Please model this.
Amino acid sequence: MTKVTMKINGKEVSGEVEGRTLLATFLREDLHMTGTHIGCDTSQCGACVVHVNGKAVKSCTMFAAEAEGADVATIEGQANADGSLNVIQQAFQDHHGLQCGFCTPGMVMSAAALLKENPKPTESEVRAYLEGNICRCTGYHNIVKAIMAASGQDVSAIAAE
Model:
């Protein structure tokens, strides 16, 4: 067993993990932070996206021990300080960017990373950035609209597919 300590959503946490424990497993099973979803275990779906030291990471492909000393942000830490939805979460709600919700945490975390890198992405840039995230329900159209709306852009011109 290896002791790991990291900051998650601004709070320092510690735990003991086996060397093979994935960050997603540590978050869900050890810390009971079940907002990070595990959809495939093969890095295909993106449901497990978190931010590690400011970068979007698929937590099913990273060992918990690799996050030693890191600053980790999860979907649980995305709301505003008063508990209200942040601008991305609100845009997903306003533009119907979710259906079953399974992919939503990963989509929101990916959207946050995209908007940090590119505050005003084009529709094609949003679609390209989301290639590592799978949604089986929405067809992506409203997810793209939500992300563009969260960036402050007018989404009325986005044609339905």
